[in-house]
Batch of 2 targets.
Target 1
Amino acid sequence: MSETALVSVSRERDGVALIHLNRPPANSYNRAFLDDLNTAIDEVRWDGDLQAAVLVSDLAPRFFSAGADITNFQSSTQQQRVMTVLHAQEILLKIERTPKVFVAAISGHALGGGLEIALACDFRFAAVGEYRIGLPEVTLGLLPGNGGTQRLTRLVGRTRALDMMITNQQVNAARALELGLVERIFAADELVEKSVDYVAQLAKGPTLAIGNIKIATRLGADLPMEGALALEREAVWRLFMSQDAAEGLAAFSEKRKPEWKGR
């Protein structure tokens, strides 16, 4: 990470990590921010004691993230701009391909690339409020290039996503819940705690199965049915050979609570 980390990791209870976004004034991303985000994701990926992560903004309640640093883009070369997009896409794909659950806890404006970070997470929980959530890139003569055109479409449907992006439609938390853009809404002072509670319960459960369910669901959704079923079969075959599956079957037969090992 950079000397003064713009994204950092702290450890909560029960194997849960908090990934803190902290680049004042709006968590707009530049190369250093993306590098630190990449390092934070890798830390969660490689740490066997961490089973889930919640992305939070240290700048709440004003911002979750306002997206790309436009001033930085203006001073960049065309090649640097293209590489920034590629770098961001590759980092966000890591969230999708990590067999641990990631939740974005949104309690301030989540716009452009900031929303795209949240879209890459498995779940989006939001605080009650009138802050804005949307992809306004069209107002710059651009499009959401960090997965927004694809992930938003998969969440809310093609025509609704298209309408939101081409008309710069920005919604509040309540409307985002109606659209399926976020899955839960909590009071602002409870958002992080409730998000941690959710993933902590998962972290105490059969994490090997949960991780495989995530990968099969997320990656399989982009495959033809035959390929998706093959992915599912491979996942369940691996689980059949795991200690957790043996324990789960034995506990069911013996009418007791299973003791999960995550292996």
Target 2
Amino acid sequence: MIFRQFYLPCLAHASYLIGDEATGTAAVVDPQRDTDQYIAFATEHSLKIKHVFLTHLHADFVAGHLELREREGATVYLGAAAKATYPFTPLHDGQTLDFGRVRLKALETPGHTPESISILVYDLGASPAGDDSHPYAVLSGDTLFIGDVGRPDLRAALGWSAAELGGLLFDSLHTKLLALPDDCLVYPAHGAGSLCGKALSKETFSTLGEQRRTNYALQPMTKEAFLQVVTADQPDAPAYFTYDAVRNSEERPTLDETLARVNPMTLDDLLALQEVGAQILDTRDPAEFAAAHLAGSINIGLGGQFATWVGTVLDRDHPIVIIADPGRENESATRLGRIGFDHVAGYLRDGLHSLKSRQELTVSTERVSAPFASELLSSPQPPVAIDVRTPREREQKHLAGSLSIPLNHLLENLEKIPKDRPLLVYCAGGYRSSIAASLLQRNGFQGVREIAGGIVSWETANLPIQTGQISLH
């Protein structure tokens, strides 16, 4: 048996390939939408991808099941409770698929979503004939994470309450997963950084025994207590989550078909689209964006949590035009496609170099040092400091007198920001403040500055900081 985990850090997403050398057959579980790596790995090991499974209809990315169907002829498998507009093989509880020495067994584990399944992986060559009491691993999808469990509140828009799904999740964990042996390996679909839970570990696998001992959500408690602890303090889910969950249930163009429509365009073409409402997305590093950028463009750099913030800040009603470092245009479009943002009209040929002869179209964002920011805030006419971090981050520490508007709620709270005073935006390190500053400039705010390096640089400079009502130096 060949077993391989693929991990995509920018989405904190884990996918899996399980292969049998004797028959040359492979299955892929929870693939990302760009599928080259699975095909390359299979080819390298003389395997053919014949099966593709989704543990559930993912909310935070568009999966690559249709891509593998089109490219490899793979059969698509979903939980029996799933509804989809494309043909698939429904998997009921206990149903198995054998190929060579590999057995995959479905467990219906609803809770994170109604159709969630987990997949037990058996190496039949390493266990007594017919013995399926000791699986090698469980691919737990978003039902069980390392250190956490899947949140049950992401299907409200589709008619499922957190209480309903939370009750199902409790039952799935206790009657299905906790019944597995302690040495069974646990391989989830997400790790730290995913918004599908609140306390995911940086580890990408564990054992069931270790999770039984250390996972807060698996400790002995009533179903009512479980519902309370699991639903409390969950991070805000971006608006695109429901959209992606629906897209994963639909027939749709493949990523290759989508990317084939993304072509270079001239500056004049870009400006014409911008005039009628196109979203100009600059994917360069925040420092480069601050130095010079096209007026009205939005900065979401490829070096940070790109997918989360694209899905939060941009909409699906207006086309997107990309400005990128030359050579990174396709990467930008691909990463948009990973979350189903296929409405890319093209990219600016030669990136910002196209604006060399049109300097009047460029603006900059001043990024000031923490000591200078402190001087500005102590001046007779100080700027308004805007903290765009999360409430939890702010509770730990913040700049005295700053206005708290988390980045994911900035656009709906613009009226709270004065337009007659300069602004000083900060976050933890400078990535989110660049997004916020670009949005403020796009919406007509003048005199927008950022604190370079965010609150980290403020602390490094040993400047006063507040936590609660206590001032620290």
